TrEMBL record:
Superkingdom in the source lineage: Bacteria
Residues covered by the SSD domain: 181-312, 519-645
Homology family: Belongs to the resistance-nodulation-cell division (RND) (TC 2.A.6) family. MmpL subfamily.
PANTHER family registered for this protein in UniProt: MEMBRANE PROTEIN MJ1562-RELATED, MEMBRANE PROTEIN YDGH-RELATED
Organism, scientific name: Nonomuraea rosea
The protein's name in its UniProt record: MMPL family transporter
Alphabetically ordered keywords of this record: Cell membrane, Membrane, Transmembrane, Transmembrane helix
Protein topology in the membrane: Multi-pass membrane protein
Keyword flag Endoplasmic reticulum: no
A Pfam family: MMPL
Location of the protein in the cell: Cell membrane
Membrane-spanning intervals of the chain: 157-175, 182-205, 217-237, 258-279, 291-312, 347-366, 488-507, 514-536, 548-569, 590-612, 618-639
Amino acid sequence: MAFCWVALTVAAVLATGQLNDVRITSGTSMLARDAESARVLDLLAKQGGRMVPTLVVYERAGPLGRADHAAVRRHIRQFAGVPGVIDEKMTPIPSPDGHALQVPVLLSGKQGVLVSPMVERLRQIVTTDRPPGLSGYVTGAGGMAADYVESFRHIDVTLLALSLAVVLLVLLAVYRSPILWVIPMLAVVVAYLGSAAAVYALARAGLVTLRGATPEVFTVLVFGVATDYALLLIARYREQLRVTADQTAALRAALTGGIRTVVASALTVAGGVGCLLVADTNALRSIGAVAAIGILITMVVMVTFLPALMLLGGRRVFWPATPLPGQSARDGLWTSVAGFVGRRARLSWVGSSLLLALLCLGLATVDASGIPPSALFTMRTDSVAGHDALERHYPANAPVVVVSKESVSAAVASAVRGVEGVTSVHTGPPATWRVHDVVLAAEPNTHEAQVLVQDLRQAVRWAAGDAALVGGFATELLDVKNAALDDALLIVPLILLVVGLILVVLLRSVVAPLLLIGTVVLSFAATLGLCSALFTKLLGYPAMDAGFALYAFVFLVAFGIDYNIFLMARVREEAARLETREATLHALRVTGGVITAAGVVLAAAFFVLTVLPLVPVIQLGMLVAVGVVIDTVIVRSLLVPALAHHIGQVIWWPRRGAL
């Protein structure tokens, strides 16, 4: 079995490529499939290719001189010769203070045409043959799209190396053995390579899509989950090696309960993240599909390949702490924790609940209005510098695109000009869907811009009905926010229902699933409150991404239930021979160490995402990491076992006992 998995993995890796090669970064990647702005992009693509508005900004500390204007004119002539630049008349627009010029440049966004090389060429032109003291930047939608793509370049190797290092360090710390870590590490690597090869093949076939940061989230997710399952199974194996001298019998006994727990855990997590498949937002569906596939393949690897390696290694791989029959486990810490919970159950669950409620006070700082373009990156990119230059020298403006059928184009243009807050309207040449480039007097991704977009849409509807649509950069930001809210209203109750049903089937109880789901929701609220306060008060992030809370909810609920299963499945197993309260304390003693180690691995794996220079991904990584730690240390160590101990047999209602 072990050799078959290795051969299969090697063959799959040789036949596939890197996930980054099948990443989609098109304009609709982060939009909802039925959003009006997405329909505008699709119409423009079918009509000959959408256009990506880009701005080249020049500025000087003082007034611009003749040499500056001459350099800009030379650059404009060179811009026109760049492949992919739509050769329309490019006229520099001076700033009111005379210190800056901006040149609107339209880039081709046709299918298969990459924006990044065009932006890179524009930047090369801007930085050459320029008078001393004159600065130049490429910003706008094109510049920011290029910087977004660049932020992922070469990061996958770093992320993979860090994930491997995290797993290795945790395994060495947990096992304190120079040999044992090799077995779970090999299984984790095979699980990652196998699942990555499957996702790559499905993406190449067009069956799944990888959008935004999906490959990075997939990497840390698979490493974290695979290590968790390895820790659980090896802990059960070591426990049985202290009972019997027969290694095969010990492995069989360990797998009897261990595989059932791993399968239940994987199905629960996959079912939870799989709920994202019903989302309208493209990026959410992408992460949901890829994460579910990765978890299920990881489960198969860990319940087949890992046991084969464990059997090959036998008892000797645990050296120097070789488990022997009759030997007692060293669980002094968790014996003390279980003793405290048993003596002070009410104090334990009341105190931990109050602590989580206190952390929930940070929810008052939550602002999910979306991250402004200037704060999207942790580093000062060229597009951010250009955006700041525009703010210094020009009135606030938000670009919008209105498309209308030719028969109503005149009426639409007139209606648009009559909307308060519209500063300019440029109507393109006749076409089936005529393009009107509109500028609003507001900063993109602000409340003012959203109000103006809604007013503009209302005016266009009155003028042309369904014969006109409003899209563009500022509108896309609003549509992303609205789609995230709609998705949350659908997915939050759905994931709670799916997870609840799985727990009812697993635990054969109604009370226990309700209790576990309640603790997970409280843990999520506490984590969101704490992290929101950290983001806004300590790290200085102005807001959170519109879909950030939903991503975090899905992952934290799935992982929280995952650790609930680790604990409560063992409680139910022990309740076959012990009274429920005794079974709870025994389960806490024998699983406390492995659950804590699993939580540390998963938290560290997601924290690795903070190496990416994108603020939304950093926020997601930090929140999941903090949430897993809170869930492991407070919820799984104190709150859940204390509640189970306090409630006793009633936790298995409507049954009288666990079986």
